[in-house]
Amino acid sequence: MIRERFLQILQAGERGEDLPSDDLVFLLATPDEEEAEALFRAADRVRQRSVGDEVHLRGIVEFSNICSQNCLYCGLRRDNHRLLRYRMTGEEIIASVKEVKARGLRTVVLQSGEDPWFTKERLSDLILRIKEETGLTITLSVGERSETEYRVWKKSGADRYLLKQETSSENLFAKLRPGRSLTERLDSLKALRRLGYEVGSGNMVGLPGQSEKDLIRDIQLFRESNFDMIGVGPFIPHPQTPLAKAAPGDLRLTLKVLAITRMVTRDTNLPATTASGVLNPEGRRKALLAGANVIMPDITPQKYREHYEIYPGKTKLDGGLDSVIRLISSLRRKVSQSPGYRRSLLESGKRSPCD
Ligand code: SAM
Ligand code: SF4
Predict the structure, then answer these.
(1) pLDDT tens for residues 227-271?
(2) 54-64 vs 334-335, strand pairing mode
(3) How far does the centroid of ligand 2 lie from the alpha carbon of residue 352, in Å?
(4) Does ligand 1 come within 6 angstroms of the Cβ of 73?
(5) Which ligand lies nearest the alpha carbon of 71?
(6) Whole-number CA gyration radius for the chain
(7) Which atom of ligand 1 is nearest to the CA of 202?
(8) What is the CA(255)–ligand 1 centre distance, in A?
(9) Residue 105 and residue 156: Cα distance in Å, rounded?
(10) Which atom number of ligand 2 is nearest to the Cα of residue 74?
(11) N or C: which end of the chain has fewer CB within 10 A?
């Protein structure tokens, strides 16, 4: 039986009213299956009205697993000496990006550890070549770099940048990313916005030491920051990290954070994250039914893919493009043929559907 207050909050949320934090807590904290399902259905309706039935595919090329950072949660961290490190050559990267295009995708996500070998100039040359030879929309996800680098890469043709806040708790952030601070991260996100990137952020759900209040703060930060894309995924412990023995994030809690995020951010692009699919074979399907409208299939060459082990199980996910397309049509949704800019950017005229 769904409680009256729960229903009222859902209805207000669906109408687009600004829900106060008490209401967000009430939604997130529900222990009741029926209420959680009602939340997911409400988020799905908001998704349908705000961004439609199209699912945007972004092909991800993981071009280097070398990282100078030591994030406690991540298998690519500097101190994981068991990981076989690789860095794709320029030619290999270009060939993979062409593969993304050949498979009919309109956006490539270039992702890596914070690898200093890819200097401002080297990455800039690659971006120029990719634009010239493929015309694809380019998303960078290469970590925290200097404002000068962001500027040069934007000028060279990068369109989007993904940099998750990871958590909006300053203490937790500082513990989990030694030597870095949440303030610097948020400053980077602001700089990216100023420079004209479409900006993506996001969090991990179920980080050790994370409270329900922290998750509510994450959602509030998503709302205030007006991000264009937000990745909400569960934390998955990696055996070669200091968090090896921590419990994984809970899928249901992750879906609730995702659904509330859809409700409060309306037309933001929200991926059904790979981590949700790794945690549970039904994870991405459930996410697509709880507000998500993006999937990021992995197009990294097979010989490198297994070494991009952020968390275990990632390479075993049935993430082939065909299975992703089958999943989308099984939900009677459509694969988008556009580059997938956020709807409000298109309406404001800042982007054209043909960009
Ligand atoms: N180095 C860049 C950065 O940190 O932004 C991009 C690559 S990083 C591997 C991409 C994302 O992986 C991070 O933003 C983080 O949210 C996610 N990630 C890392 N370790 C994870 C884990 N153990 N479980 C779930 N997600 C994880
Ligand atoms: Fe490096 Fe990114 Fe992993 Fe941190 S999350 S260790 S910056 S790859």
Answers:
(1) 999 999 999 999 999 999 999 999 999 999 999 999 999 999 999
(2) parallel
(3) 33
(4) yes
(5) 2
(6) 19
(7) 16
(8) 18
(9) 21
(10) 3
(11) N
Rounded to an integer, the average pLDDT of 173-190 is 98
Identify any residues that bridge with 199 across adjacent strands, giving them in sequence order. Answer: 161
Please tell me the predicted confidence (pLDDT) of residue 317: 76
* pLDDT tens sequence across 133-155: 999 999 999 999 999 999 999 99
Name which of 269, 286, 265 is nearest 277 in CA terms.
286
Q: Exposed, middle or buried, 315 (CB in 10 Å: 0-12/13-18/19+)?
A: middle
Cα(167)–Cα(184) distance, rounded to whole angstroms?
Answer: 13
State residue 353's pLDDT score. Answer: 54
Q: Which residues pair with 160 in a beta bridge?
A: 139, 198
Distance CA 152, CA 127 (A): 10
Residue written as tokens 């039935």? 53
Residues 128 and 156 sit within 8 Å (Cβ to Cβ) = yes
Q: Among 49, 17, 51, which Cα is nearest to 264's?
A: 17
Pocket lining: 93 vs ligand 1, CB cutoff 6 Å: no
Residue nearest to atom 5 of ligand 2 (CA): 74
DSSP code of residue 341: -
- The whole-angstrom separation of Cα 52 and Cα 343 is 10
Claim: this prediction has a pTM higher than 0.85: yes
143 C-alpha vs ligand 2 centroid, how far in Å? 7
